[in-house]
User: Fold this.
Amino acid sequence: MSRLLEGKNALVLGVANKWSLAYAIAEAFHREGARLFLTYQGERQKATVEELAAALQARIFGCDVTSDEDIARLGAELNAAAGCLDAVVHSIAFANREDLARPFVETSRAGFLLAHDVSAYSLVALARMAAPLMRSGGSITTLTYLGSIRVVSNYNVMGVAKASLEAAVRYLAADLGPRGIRVNAISAGPIKTASARAVPGFSTMLEVMPQRAPLRRNVDPAEVADVAVFLASELSRGVTGNVVFADAGFHILGL
Ligand code: NAD
Assistant:
């Protein structure tokens, strides 16, 4: 069977370590024949990402998404290295731990802005950088969570940032659709990663899934990654502006 991403150039942002959802996505893209470009957030991550990238024959570039200069430099480096892009995966989020731990009403202005800057605005800035490189159309995918549309204990400001991110997906899909660029989100169920562990009581989320989710289990990173493959591939050519749930069906539940 031919591979789903054969000959495609894909940029994956958000690999911090081997547990990152972005890493599972990069592995799946590699399996499907994509030529990969990964980013690392700062010097502290560089050696780890370099090692993970080597196994996937991926090139790496530094990019802190709060920096417009970093994003512009990434665009120039990708243009020089690849010439064009077919897929971008944005797997990035951040909020101050104290803003997750205290009631939402206590969120500081600085904490609110930081969470939205890193977790939502960065998608807009990256889409603006990537769109000119998507010369024959393309696919942009981000990662979100149910806390955007439901109140989830301790998710707080991150839930509000994810709501903004999902709205940005729809506006970007409308803006970029005429250029053949699709923009979608994957709403993943809880998976143990460094970011997830910053949410107080995260292990309770993992425990509830096997009792309540329609599939009676948690999802694993490879399942989220396969949805990312679908969204980057021609199989989803008619799909844009969507939030696709990869959460064992948990989001459909009421009481
Ligand atoms: P992770 O900690 O492995 O990944 C988060 C990434 O964001 C890291 O690579 C980190 O370096 C990057 N990042 C943070 N600030 C940045 C900045 N200023 N510039 C560049 N990069 C920055 O955790 P993860 O769980 O793989 O998270 C990836 C995405 O998946 C996030 O958007 C997260 O909200 C989402 N998500 C995770 C879960 C889960 O349960 N793990 C569920 C649903 C959605």
